[in-house]
Amino acid sequence: RLLAASIRRFYPDTIVRAYVGQEIVTDADAARVREAFTGHDIGWEWVKGREFAAWQGTRSPYLATMNARWRTPADGTHVLIADCDILMADRIDELLTTDAVQGVQAHIAALTNEQWRYLFAINSCKSPSVYDHLYSGAGIMGPAGERGPWYVNSGGCLIPREYFELMCPHYRSAVNVARSALRDSYWVDQLALAVAAAKAKVPVRTLPTRYNHPNQRAFDEAYPEELRDIRIVHYLRTDTIDRDRDFADLTAMRKLVRRTDLIGSNEVVRRTVAETMGCLEPPPLTDAKDAPYA
Known about the structure:
Order of helices and strands: HEHEHHEEHEHEEEHHEEHHEHH
Structural class: alpha/beta
Radius of gyration: 19 Å
């Protein structure tokens, strides 16, 4: 709900759909989720049973909910594939006029270049001739200057609708291929996104970190110009701001908003929450501490 509210500050007509994952859904579970979304104009769908259970015991237990996003037909002119730990801090108009699938390159390489070529090959897909996309965490989380194929963070990827619909069948196929071929499933959704774009032969573009900037001091220092113009902030850490505890409910978020010790991207998170909170709850609010927001 917080993510939806942050986007609709700038784009009020945005259609939002959430995917909620759980293997066994009780009546109480269904009522709790239904109540959480009531009044917020958010469509939602359970991902449950065998579909959800298929990824339990892996490093990607919620991959079923990620996969559920890749379905057609899509509404609107663009599809923003988004995880719930990002917030829109400013407008992204310039991206909406660019004819390409766009995202910020992943922080680090999930595969060696040799493994990438193998992944493209087993998906019956031609590998890019040059791996020239700089990892956004190069020199911070990985080797300085390290480059790879177009491989963006799947939790904040903007896709024109026609390209999204072309990519969907390739994405789901690539997920299955990657799971059977790779030992570690942790990055499967991002790997499948890269393969799907290549197989669909759609134009791609790597964005600067301002469009998915992590709330981490090392990134602030490495990208000072991006820090000054953050459009989408990714609150992925649990140190200065705790992505779980500080977003647990309205009481926790009020405490976060009152903090005066934050700087850099963490201050962007705090300010964005402060600017967004007011439009979250339809009146009357009866038991705020039981209402999850993230």
